[in-house]
Give the backbone structure.
Amino acid sequence: MLTVTQLARRCGLSRTALLYYESIGLMPPPRRSGGNYRCYGEADVRRLSQIRAYRDAGLTLNDIRDLLNARPDRPDHGATGVLQRRLLELDAEIGTLRRHQKAILKLLENNTLRKAKMISKEKWVSIMRGCGFTEDQMSRWHAEFERSAPAEHQEFLEFLHIPAEEIKSIRANSRKSD
């Protein structure tokens, strides 16, 4: 028999994640010891390992629940369909990232960023939108820039001729997004 912590460690998860999976019904309620401690067996190890494999493949918790509760007489709820759908989603995400990559390379090749008088905040936002960036993706871009290179983020925002108060606001929001 395994404890919560032992099972979580064995499957490479936190104790909190395991307890959360129990609370939402992905893991069945465990047996209890005489002292009312949770006790897990090999079936629980197999189920949690299966959940972990599905999570590693990027499946949502709802998809995982559907797969774990699928009936053999309902082939439309099988892993193949869910995994094929996830593969298509990944292809779309990769396509978006490749467009972003090409846009950045184009900017670098043309030295557009070095021509300070030729680029403004509005132009930069227009370029990013033209490459498929959403508001949320631009916010995440700023958050990552702020996290990994705060001084350079400040310099970049100044380069775009953004007023000091707006720069302060952008950077503060970027730090909140972490």
